Amino acid sequence: MKLLSILDKYIIRKFLGTYIFSIVLIISIAVVFDINEKLDKFLNNNAPLKAIVFDYYMNFVPYYTNLFSALFVFIAVIFFTSKLADNSEIIAMLSNGMSFKRLMKPYMISASVIAIFSFILSSFIIPPANKTRIDFQNKYIKDKSVDYVRHIQMQIDKGVILYMESFDNRSREGINFALDKFDGKELKSRFLAKRLRYDSAYSWTATNYSIREFQGMKEVISSGSSLDTVITVTPSDILVSVNDFEQMTTPKLYSYIQRQKERGLASVGEVSITQFEIEFHKRFASVFSAFILTIIGASLSARKVKGGMGLNIGIGLGLSVSYILFQTVSSSFAVSGTMTPMLAVWIPNIVFIAIAAYLYSKAPN
């Protein structure tokens, strides 16, 4: 028995072909609008043509393709399924004894291909490409990199708490530094410095420092003008921009979140660690969105309607836009602390699973 029939191959070819066509069409329009918007900045900042094409737009295309993959899936399913229904092809399939459940097989295979491809892109390929794109944006469009941060407090090791009033990456210096070491709840030592300069790896130089060691009722104080020391933190742990999570592969993103949680950090500067958690969960939730939206799209457009496929396409676009909007709104609840990042990211999928189940039950058989 063949795994795929001629009909399965036909639907898969139609699905993936329409999906790719919608990507090419919409992303091409997006690129034209983006060039029109940023042309003055390219010219004013003397951006090289090679960098514009290869560093920016060659990385712009996969980033936005993956970002709006759910929209492209929905458009593809709605468009070609409505066309099949309008041409009475689905009626012919169902009247020939094929169930709607069996009809969904090639749809699910196509959704699996898109889901796997999307996950590999978002987890391993797009993050390094984003670094190149964001570096270009910071240099030629608008610099969003972070060079200065205030009021840093973190646990860098068990019972070791670091505080710095501010750190400037341009001078590689921090001011009003404190490092407290605890044994349980008991303070064992306090290392203070007016200035702390980063050298390399974990090497720092403290200026105008003092060290207080508490030995029971006794206190030992030492001080000096300069001291080379090892502190297990680097500027990259302190300076975090809003785009940093986009530049991390999924394993690196997970490790970063765990490390920052161990350090007791809720945020670094103006960037919340919650934003990194949201990005992590989104990469997995988007895999399931391909299947959910495929079921909704196929169930909605499989029935032949009066007036052609325009109504189906309109409803499909409305649902896909509402899904993306729902994702954005629910993510804002996580940032504000109203919901956990996992719940905020997965709620749109949960709601749309219910919609998919209802539409599937009403699909023609």
UniProtKB/TrEMBL annotation:
GO terms for cellular component: ATP-binding cassette (ABC) transporter complex. It is found in: Cell membrane. The chain crosses the membrane at residues 12-33, 63-85, 106-126, 284-302, 309-326, 338-360. Keywords: Cell membrane, Membrane, Transmembrane, Transmembrane helix. GO terms for biological process: lipopolysaccharide transport. It comes from the Bacteria. Its main location: membrane. It is a multi-pass membrane protein. This is Lipopolysaccharide export system permease protein.
